[in-house]
Amino acid sequence: MRNPGRITRGIIIELAGREGLSVKEGAFTRADLYSAEEVFVTNTTMEVMPVSKVDSQKYTVGKIAKLLRTFYRQEVNAYVSHIKAEGPSLWGQGD
Q1: So what's the pLDDT on residue 59?
Q2: Which of 1, 46, 69, 86 has its CA 20 to 30 A from that of 13?
Q3: What is the spatial distance between Cα 89 and Cα 13, in angstroms, rounded to a whole number?
Q4: Between helices 8-18 and 63-85, what is the axis angle to 10°?
């Protein structure tokens, strides 16, 4: 995550690919969602947020969302550490 212009969704897709997980992007119907084993959304604020219910269809928090959230946090932490190591910045020195 060396490019601060990258967005969360793109990082998550990249991390999934590194782990051999297939990612499908497109327009999905409710039937597609109802048949899914796991559903989650991504954005900058929530990062990877499991969806627990769509209409009456309930989902448990699955391994994929947990795994991607962990990898995403590791990627962000590595990026912040790299920026801090470059020296004085808005992060301060060594803070």
Answers
A1: 92
A2: 86
A3: 29
A4: 110
Take residue 2 and report the two structure tokens written for it. Answer: 């060396």
In one letter, which amino acid is 38? E
Residue that wins the pLDDT comparison between 68 and 85? 68
pLDDT digits (tens, 9 = 90+) for 16-29: 999 999 888 889 89
CA–CA separation, 93 and 76 (whole Å): 19
* Residues listed for the chain: 95
Token look-up 């969806």 returns 51
User: Residue 89 is encoded by which pair of tokens?
Assistant: 């910045």
40 in Cβ contact with 54 (< 8 Å)? no
